[in-house]
Amino acid sequence: MLPTLTVAFLTGLVLGSYLPYVPLSILGVLVVAAVGLTWVGEGARESPRGLVLYAALLVGVLYWTFYTWAVHRPPLPDRANLAPARVLGTVVEPVRYGPDRAVVIVEGTIRDPGGGLTRDAGRIRLTWREPDRAFVRGDRIEFSVRLHSPTGLLNPGGFDYAAYLERQDIQAIASVTGPGAIRSVESGQESLRWGLWQRVDRWRDEIRRAAVATLQGTALGLYLGMIVGEQGYLPPEVRDAFMASGVVHILSISGSHLGLIAVLCFWAVKRLCMILPTSWLLVLSLRVTPTRLAAAVTVVPVTFYTALAGAEVATVRSLVMILMFLAAVWLGRDKHMRSALAFAALLILFHDPRALFDISFQLSYLSVLAIALALPTTQSSQADMARLEFQPVNWVEWGRESVRITGVVTLATLPLVAYYFNQVAWIGLIANLIVVPLTGLALVPLGLGSAVWLLSVGGDRLPAATLNQMLFDLAARIADWFASLPGAEWHVAAPAVPALGAFYAFLWWAMRRQSSVASRIAAAVTIALLLGWWGWSPRERPDGETVRVTFLDVGQGDATVVELPDGRTVLIDGGATSERFDMGRHVVGPFLWNRGIRSIDHVIGTHPQVDHVGGLAWILRHFPVSQYWGNGAARSEVFYRRLEGALAARGLAERVAQEGDAVIDSEACRLFVLHPPAGAASALSPPARLSGTALNNHSVVTRLECGSLSFLFAADLEAQGLLRLVETGSARPATILKVPHHGAKSSLSHLWLERVHPAAAVISVGRHNPYGHPAATVLEALAAVGSRILRTDVDGAVWITAHVSSSRVTIHTMKEWLLAPVRIGAAMTAAERRNLSRLRFRWGIH
Fold first, then answer.
1. Is the pLDDT reported for residue 295 higher than 90?
2. DSSP string, 385-428
């Protein structure tokens, strides 16, 4: 009964999460559920099953509503344009480190400049670049900073970073740079609340410093990620390789790592009991069975491992599930694992129901549940332990069960991985059979043992460093090899939410032993069809009429996707890249996959600046590209060398664009180059002396004409280049204008703007950018010519759909698809209908 009640409670949480947006629909669902569950309960009058289930459903709805009301703290008003404020606060979470940076979560108060009022700041996520000291939980610190309200990028199907921060109760974000930027005020070492955590954090810092001093490259990132949960040292390309090979779950401490430690410890204790002298074992069995002893002993290492990893929320959730498993074994209820897991889910969600929508909770819980369902039914522990003789391991049977359980877990998590990461890691069926045993039997025991030894005897170097380096490098090479296999990196469009629900419903039906053979076969066939459809991820067939232009929200940068009526695709710029975030990987690529685009006909890098071509290196390595266009300028910076390497890997040579070149010349549409002029590339300065203005004024400017419609992509052209377009007669009216240089004042030419006179102008610009883009004078000039102004920092991604045979265009922004709370009143029904349309869009129902 408990698993069924848990499902009802979870359903109530989901309904409660949408109650503010579609209240009438939720009430309708509750009425239908009341009728249906009453009918279910009619068959068991002695036990009002339907009433109990409906009560669990209502408790879920009410609990979500009450909890979110109780804990909600609105983000701080944006203070990006104000003077820095002085913040005094307490470090409340483990500090996360990376090369030359630290991320500190602080809870404290703000004192305005000049000794103004002190106000509660809530939680602040502070990034400290070039830190000169370490802090631990409980430390009181002080710093001066400009605070920003939490924001993210708004793109169709994109990751909502702002919502992620909200679930972490973050009210503001900020960054400081340089030694001494954060000052220590007081240590919490003597505090009852923080004393133990301070000791654990110092252990973690001691291990991190020793690892940094003794390990190099990929092995360092893997060791810190898998042993102390420190992800900041892991290069993005390594994570991509582990993702493609289907073994990314081993990179962070989660249910899989705790489960490996639990299984290893549990097995070792039982085996040690088995080899004891018979008389000793009999005496031991009078007090506790070997199985119970193993369960009790296992609690210690998994709890220690959780604490050493920083006791993050995701790790603690996994610990709760494992402790429930061990409790079931202790109580002799090991055949009731579904009830134990249901109870664990209730504990986790009563603590924070928002965890239900957390990726880590969904994946880890589903993995553990799949393993519990896949494990064969065993005899009771007492009967099993009555056999005192040592039983050798049946490696054939072990291998068979490993393959089966790996297959079940991969199948169960595949839809969620496809939904969140646009990937089907089918090769993980094989890779996990090698990497998981290597992790459980070598990497984690060796790495954790080295850490414990370091903490026990002291020192500044990691014990067994050579062996750690060798084994962790081996794991990386294995993942790289699997990821390099043809077809291993299989990207797909994110499945629609209703299709996900159908998949799990049919999977549950196929696994029910009570179902008939025919119905189970039918369910299995349906599952196979769904998987085939997701793996195919077909693109909409071109109709010869529709053109779609999408200006993606890539922060302070540009990235535009042009989908032409004949099915060809053009990508103009790809956003920026940084040490931790690549717009090509996290924004442009997922958008293309969700549109069913597997290859690109033309990529145009308007000019070699990081905010325009930084993300193109990743795109070129992961999408077949027919032609790459640039302005001929070269740079010596790392981002440009990566771009050159990606072009070489694809066997592409940069084609220098110049005035008059036709990128696309079809019957329906023409895309041609307006700037730079012919021969301009030869006049560019050497890479070491290229200025920003010179690069901007040699940007590749293109114009797309489809029937009577026109789109002008002005890149970062400044006033000098814009006046040249006026002089050459290229400044003609355009339907849609991509405003040059993110709306910078240096790219304002009133004469050019009057000639172009766009009906709509799109400004691709980042929130809280330090340049003050877009300039007020640019906005005023656009308004003066009657342009509708669209901004990615305000509206999110902007996409424009038009038909070649018509002059009408349809403009959508991501902002208009965000859910809005429904207020009680006359317009309530209309507001709910709009939200239902937004939900269909978000769920992939078009």
1. no
2. HT--SPPPP-HHHHHHHHHHHHHHHHHHHHHHHHHHHSEE-TTH
Taking the C-alpha atoms of residue 781 and residue 150, their distance in angstroms, rounded to an integer, is 30
How many CA within 13 A on the CB side of residue 201? 23
Nearest 5°: CA angle at 739, between 737 and 742? 155
Stated as kind and residue range, the H or E segment containing 675 is strand 669-675
Predicted confidence (pLDDT) at residue 529 exceeds the cutoff of 60: yes
Estimate to the nearest angstrom the gap between the alpha carbon of 395 and the chain centroid: 38
Token pair 């902002």 is at which residue? 815
DSSP assignment string, 482-524: HHTSTT-SEE-PPPPHHHHHHHHHHHHHHH-TTS-HHHHHHHH
Contact 222, 234 (CB under 8 A): yes
Amino acid at 709: L
Helix (H) or strand (E) holding 126: strand 118-129
Task: Evaluate whether 807 touches 816 at the Cβ level (below 8 Å).
Answer: no
- Residue that the structure tokens 């599930």 belong to: 321
Q: How far is the C-alpha of 473 from the C-alpha of 465, rounded, in Å?
A: 12
The answer to whether the CB of 382 falls within 8 A of the CB of 330 is no
For 541, counting Cβ atoms within 10 Å of its Cβ (0-12 exposed, 13-18 middle, 19+ buried), the class is exposed
pLDDT per position as a tens digit, 130-187: 998 999 999 999 999 888 888 889 999 888 888 888 878 888 888 999 999 999 998 8
- pLDDT above 70 for 678: yes
- Using CA atoms, how far residue 254 sits from 239, 257, 531, in Å, is 16, 6, 27
| H helices present in 72-138, as ranges | none
Handedness of CA 314, 316, 320, 322 (dihedral sign): positive
Model pLDDT for residues 725-754, shown as the tens digit of each residue: 999 999 999 999 999 999 999 999 999 999
Cβ atoms of residues 819 and 835 within 8 Å: yes
Encode pLDDT of 543-573 as tens digits: 889 999 999 999 999 999 999 999 999 999 9
Categorise residue 216: left if φ over 0, alpha if ψ from -120 to 50, beta otherwise: beta
Residues 615-641, buried b or exposed e (16+ Cβ, 10 A)? bbbbbbbbbebeebbbbbbebeeebbe
Torsion over CA: 805, 809, 813, 818 (sign):
negative
What tokens were used for 690? Answer: 């290229």
Supply 810's token pair.
């349809």
What pLDDT does residue 686 have? 59
Cα–Cα distances (Å) from 804 to 708, 785, 807, in that order, read 7, 25, 8
Tell me, what amino acid is at 562? V
Contacts of 203 (CB under 8 A, 6+ apart): 308, 455
Straight-line distance from the first to the last Cα atom of the chain, in angstroms, rounded to the nearest whole number:
38
